[in-house]
TrEMBL record, chain A:
This is ABC transporter permease. The chain crosses the membrane at residues 327-350, 378-401, 421-445, 498-518, 729-748, 781-805, 811-840. It holds the Pfam family MacB_PCD. It is a multi-pass membrane protein. Residues 332-447, 732-845 form the ABC3 transporter permease C-terminal domain. It is found in: Cell membrane. Keywords: Cell membrane, Membrane, Transmembrane, Transmembrane helix. Residues 499-692 form the MacB-like periplasmic core domain. It comes from the Bacteria. Its main location: membrane.
Automatic annotation (TrEMBL), chain B:
It comes from Agrilactobacillus yilanensis. Gene3D superfamilies: P-loop containing nucleotide triphosphate hydrolases (3.40.50.300). SUPFAM superfamilies: P-loop containing nucleoside triphosphate hydrolases. InterPro entries: AAA+_ATPase, ABC_transporter-like_ATP-bd, ABC_transporter-like_CS, MacB-like_ATP-bd, P-loop_NTPase. It holds the Pfam family ABC_tran. Residues 4-231 form the ABC transporter domain. Belongs to the ABC transporter superfamily. This is ABC transporter ATP-binding protein.
Length: 858, 233
């Protein structure tokens, strides 16, 4: 080994602390950058692999008249399609009348395979497999008897529970969809041997495309490909629909023909006998009417109607994609900022290292070593630290972070994860890490090497001290104590360190604040919508205009009932500026004054209350933003029945989730030439248990007065859950940001001490007490920390706002909210870090060798 | 009793495997208000003894009695207090705080003792009344050393310790500084200890202690010290 190389290795060994510090900073930077960047794709891949393994259908088709083998063949005429018919219906349990989504189990079926968690799949006629959630939430156990309600119309009412399973059709533990029986909410699914369902034909057609399986189920490529397939399927099923209807009609006609012929014959006989006035003839006529009615009904039932469903319509599927998109959105901002700070600090550290080695560089130069040979040492040192940091950070980040997040994703079924290294992201991190290390070394070494050896061996001429601006304000300057003057002058002497420390502290504060901000803001969307804007707890959809009294009577019997108001609702599509939004809720209150107690209509800018006027509508803010329209602009409105109208916007209201249009009934009538139907009740309730909620909903449904009841509590819970999915990642952010700020502060203080060791030794020799020596240098840190924290508040808010903007969906606004706890945590952490660093510095300064420092001429 | 009394003082350093003995059984005394020169070649251990006398370091063994108090067994805190109130240092390389002006450098020292002298007055005494608001980088070496001297004097110490005070200065400026030290001793009755390898300086001292190879080789009293102006080298 050459002496120069030996010297390099010994350098590393001697300055272990600094070498490790650089590695650590780069490690943290790459860890969070690579880790968070990898988490979004990893979440998508995990779900994608799980559902692919279980062969989840791409498209599911429900028919009013069931499916036969021919339907499968029709579906398979589309390229790549494999179709399977399945039996499916909703049923109620015996006692609690819980809604169960019941599937027929057929061992030969390939699609939507169950992911068995315990027990075995049904082998005998009396065996049932239940949803894993039935075990978790409703405490069913293996070997127990599961009872269905009598009207479930199954072969038996009692089955033995032999297994628990997850299904790729239900990835979200909290959501099983809705049904038109019981209280309307499906609680879990179950699989029974197919024949047990007592269905004459299959009710479900599962279609899977072999040529779609290479695409990630959340990718745009998959979505557009599946849409093309659905189009192709719809084309062939349009023909099939007619065939099926005709075929069924023929069967019905054939069924009725003998009876009809009999009747006609009997009628003809009586007519021939001129007995048209006899009672027998009357009976015949009555029978004929009856028969015709029955036939008509049977024919009506042959009308085939399809319901299409792709993966994104499965419960929880879309939300999962959105949550991983949201993490990806965060990944574009948060880690980049984090990495930037890490790079800056590394840069400072390397710069300092090379500067400390000035005289050594001079010596080598004097000995006749070339620039390249000398520079190589520092480049290798920096590069080594950078590479080690990048490798460790990438591996830990890429492997651990997505796993941790997935493991903490308790809201979803356990997903199989196979995490792949994201080479693209790792390369970006590596480039930046090397820029920060080797790049810094290159710049500084190059600068130092241009000086002659003699100049290098002489001490660097001290930075010329300058009067600072503050001194010019004499009255203020004079008031400061001597020590403060010294501190302030020092602060401004080392400007680069001043900025570095402020950036470090501000960055840490901002990142911690952002962590809290993301969480708070997403939760605030639901909280504010359901507490500030909506002041009701339930929405009851009435069966018809006459059923309101009945429904209100049922409500009044409920203990928790307070008030209700009636209104007409409709769904429509709105258009303006060439953009459109479908599924917008139209609310037309019966009593506008009363309605104001249920929904707060306030101007988005001024916060002033808005009134429903006769000539226009109020539109919610997000819809207005998407369409790019303002008060006074015209808005094109299309109802689901195709009726169109154009109306002026008279106000834009504050709203956080969903799109709403509020208008009075007079306006509606003017626009669509008909009275709106008062089909909805908004109900104010006292706080309820979930049992009370379910019971009330079921009573309303059973009475026939309502077709459905939804609770704001449930919707808010969904929003809260959405915020909770980000908890793990936010916790990781806060933790790592804390570590980063600590390392930054520690590192900068170390540089500060080493740069000013002579100065510190001098004042120590002068007889400053240890406390005074520490304060002499730490006073600067305290000032910088305080400034950094304040700057961090600002940056934190900006960063949060930007991330929220990125993460917002078409339906939701996340109002920028950072709870005081966020500010408190960030501030306390920073102060604690400053205190720890202060303590460590204190200990270190107690042991500095003042004699050694003062002896040398540097 | 003498003002400074060093009795059988040893200082040993452990340098890896080997033990280095910097002071090997040193014993000498110095009188109050006198100028004492410790003379010896570099590496003789004279800086070590000065550091011990100044409370920057403690001996491994022996007694160091200053004004009747043995500082050899002082704790770190006691040593700091001793340096703070009783000692003024002048180093070869000035060690001024680069970020403070001349006046502020002196004030820095003055701010920590109660009976400190006025910074401006002291600076005027060393002939720098016109340089009060300059930063060290704007001063020549001789001027910087005079600021360092002013800083030591401003604390009004019992003992003025100087480690090669002219080592980095040219002949003329060196002489100026020595002149100031001399007057501090003769006119203001300060006890002054100067460490040097320059044998010519022995003539200006009341007492010369020759140190070589970690031991005291000779102690010479000089009843008629010469003025620095009369010495040439």
């Amino acid at each position: 080994m050459k002496p120069l190389t030996k010297n390099m290795w010994r350098n590393i060994a001697q300055s272990k602390g600094r070498f490790i510090a650089i590695i650590l900073i780069i490690l943290l930077g790459t860890l969070i950058f690579v880790g968070v960047k990898a988490t979004g794709p990893a979440l998508n891949t995990a779900l994608d692999q799980t559902v692919k393994k279980a062969k989840l259908s791409d498209v599911q088709l429900l028919s009013t008249t069931g499916f036969t083998k021919e339907d499968s063949q029709v579906a398979e005429s589309v390229t790549g399609a494999t179709a399977e018919t399945a039996k499916f219906k909703y049923a109620l349990t015996a006692k609690s009348k819980t809604v169960v989504a019941l599937y027929g189990y057929d061992a030969t079926q390939q699609q939507n395979q169950l992911i068995l968690r315990s027990g075995h799949l049904p082998k005998h006629a009396n065996e049932i497999v239940l949803d894993q959630q039935a075990k978790q939430k409703y405490h069913y156990r293996l070997g127990q008897t599961f009872k269905f309600a009598k009207d479930a119309a199954l072969k038996q009412n009692r089955y033995k529970i032999v297994g628990f399973a997850d299904s790729p059709q239900y990835i979200d533990n909290e959501s099983r969809g809705s049904a038109n029986i019981g209280d309307g909410t499906v609680r879990f699914f179950a699989y029974l041997p197919e024949k047990q369902l007592n269905l004459p034909t299959a009710t479900l057609l599962n279609i899977r495309f072999s040529n779609l399986q290479t695409k990630n189920t959340y990718s745009k490529a998959y979505l557009s490909a599946v849409n093309r397939k659905v189009k192709a399927l719809k084309k062939v099923f349009k023909v099939r629909q007619k065939q099926r209807t005709t075929a069924l009609q023929n069967t019905v006609t054939q069924q009725f023909t003998p009876q009809q012929m009999q009747l006609t014959a009997a009628k003809a006989q009586l007519t021939a006998n001129q007995q048209t006035n006899s009672t027998a003839y009357q009976t015949l006529l009555a029978q004929e009417t009856q028969l015709n009615a029955a036939k008509k009904q049977a024919l009506a039932a042959t009308k085939t109607h399809y319901t299409w469903q792709t993966r994104s319509e499965l419960p929880g599927f879309e939300a999962y994609g959105e949550s991983s998109d949201r993490i990806a959105a965060i990944a574009n901002v948060f880690p980049v900022f984090f990495f930037l700070i890490a790079a800056l600090i590394t840069f400072t550290t390397i710069t300092r290292m090379v500067e400390e080695n000035r005289s050594q560089i001079g010596t080598f130069k004097a000995l006749g070593y070339g620039k390249g040979a000398i520079a190589k040492n520092y480049l290798v040192y920096a590069g080594l630290a950078g590479i080690i940091g990048t490798i460790l950070g990438s591996i830990i980040g890429n492997e651990a972070l997505p796993r941790i997040v997935l493991a903490l994703y308790k809201a979803y079924i356990p997903l199989s994860h196979n995490i792949t290294l994201q080479w693209g992201i790792i390369s970006i991190a590596a480039v930046f890490a090397l820029l920060a290390t080797v790049g810094a070394a290159l710049i500084v070494v190059n600068k130092e090497l241009t000086a002659g050896p003699a100049a290098l061996m002489r001490p660097r001429s001290p930075k010329s001290a300058k009067r600072i601006l503050l001194e010019r304000i004499t009255p203020l300057w004079r008031r400061l104590s001597f020590n403060r003057k010294v501190s302030y002058r020092n602060l401004f002497r080392f400007k680069s360190r001043l900025f570095m420390t402020i950036i470090g502290i501000a960055g840490g504060t901002a990142l911690i604040l952002t962590g809290f901000g993301i969480q708070n803001s997403i939760a605030a969307s639901g909280t504010r919508q359901y507490h500030e804007i909506f002041n009701y707890q339930a929405v009851v959809r009435l069966k018809n205009t006459q059923s309101d009294t009945k429904a209100i009577n049922i409500l009044k019997q409920a203990e928790t009932y307070q008030h209700q108001t009636q209104l007409a609702t409709a769904i429509g599509k709105i258009q303006a500026n060439g953009k459109h939004i479908s599924d917008v809720n139209l609310y037309m209150p019966k009593d506008t004054k009363q309605f104001q107690k249920y929904t707060r209509l306030q101007d988005v800018k001024t916060g002033q209350a808005l009134k429903l006027k006769n000539n226009g509508v109020l539109l919610t803010q997000k819809a207005a933003t998407i369409l790019g329209i303002q008060v006074g602009d015209p808005l094109k409105l299309t109802l689901t029945n195709g009726q169109k109208a154009t109306v002026k916007i008279t106000g834009i209201t504050t709203n956080f989730t969903g799109h709403f249009i509020y208008l009075n009934q007079v306006t509606y009538q003017k626009l669509f030439q008909k009275k709106p139907v008062n089909n909805t009740l908004l109900v104010q309730l006292k706080s309820q248990t979930s049992q009370q909620r379910d019971q009330l909903a079921q009573e309303l449904l059973d009475s026939g007065a309502a077709i459905g009841t939804s609770y704001t509590h449930t919707q808010q819970a969904t929003m809260t859950k959405m915020a909770a999915t980000l908890d793990p990642i936010v916790a990781i952010f806060i933790l790592l940001s804390g570590i980063l700020s600590f390392v930054v502060l520690y590192n900068l203080t170390n540089i500060n001490v080493s740069e000013r060791i002579r100065e510190l030794s001098t004042i120590k020799v002068l007889g400053f007490y240890d406390r005074e020596v520490t304060l002499y240098i730490v006073r600067e840190n305290i000032v910088l920390t305080l400034v950094g924290i304040l700057v961090g508040y600002g940056i934190g808010n900006l960063l949060t706002a930007y991330i929220l903007h990125q993460a917002a969906t078409n339906l939701i606004i996340f109002p920028l909210t950072i709870a005081p706890i966020g500010y408190i945590t960030a501030t306390v952490l920073m102060l604690v870090f400053t205190a720890i660093v202060m303590y460590v510095t204190h200990k270190k300064l107690q042991h500095i060798d003042m004699i050694e420092a003062l002896k040398s001429n540097e | 009793m003498a003002y400074i009394e060093v009795k059988h003082e040893y200082k040993r350093y452990q340098m890896g495997e080997t033990e280095i003995i910097a002071n090997n059984d040193l014993s000498f005394t110095a009188e109050k208000g006198q100028l004492t020169v410790i003379l010896g070649p570099s590496g003789a251990g004279k800086s070590t003894v000065l550091n011990i006398l100044g409370g920057m370091d403690s001996p491994s063994e022996g007694e160091v009695i200053i004004d009747g108090v043995d500082i050899a067994k002082f704790s770190q805190r006691q040593l700091t207090e001793f340096r703070r109130h009783d000692i003024g240092f002048v180093f070869q390389f000035y060690n001024l705080i680069p970020n403070l002006t001349t006046k502020e450098n002196v004030e820095l020292a003055a701010s920590i003792v109660e009976d400190a002298l006025d910074a401006t007055t002291v600076l005027e005494q060393v002939g720098l009344g016109h340089r009060l608001n300059n930063f060290p980088s704007q001063l020549s070496g001789g001027e910087q050393q005079r600021v360092a001297l002013a800083r030591a004097l401003a604390k009004n110490p019992k003992l003025l310790l100087c480690d090669e005070p002219t080592g980095a200065l040219d002949y003329e400026t060196g002489k100026q500084v020595l002149k100031l030290l001399e007057s501090a001793c003769r006119e203001n009755q300060k006890t002054v200890l100067i460490i040097t390898h320059n044998a010519a300086l022995a003539k200006m001292a009341d007492r010369v202690i020759r140190i070589n190879d970690a031991q005291v080789r000779a102690i010479e009293d000089n009843p008629t010290p010469l003025s620095i102006d009369a010495i040439e080298w």
